[in-house]
Write a structure and sequence with these properties.
The chain is mainly beta. The chain has a single domain (6-72), classed as Roll (SH3 type barrels). The chain has one helix at residues 6-13, and strands at residues 17-22, 27-35, 41-50, 53-62, 67-72. The longest helix has 8 residues, at 6-13.
Length: 73
């Protein structure tokens, strides 16, 4: 049985549209451009959804310790 390590899973998501849920309840959607060993993420063309409002953010860096989940859009 093969087990996927977290970093290899994140690597497979690079250049794909992802949805990132943050600890404070914000939801960010965008193209995963990169990441580092601390799971800090770089999203391009990011869009933030919070309290029924949506705003365009562009390119953002998300600290890994604020992330609750990452999924494919």
């Amino acid at each position: 049985m093969s087990v996927a390590l977290p970093m290899s899973v994140i690597q497979s998501l690079v250049d794909n549209e992802v949805i990132v849920i943050l600890k404070d309840g914000r939801i960010l959607e965008g193209k995963l451009a990169g990441f580092d060993n601390n799971m800090n993420l770089v999203l391009e063309k990011a869009k933030e959804q919070y309290n029924e409002t949506t705003r365009m953010l562009g390119t953002v860096v998300i600290r890994g310790n604020n992330i609750v989940s990452i999924s494919v859009k």
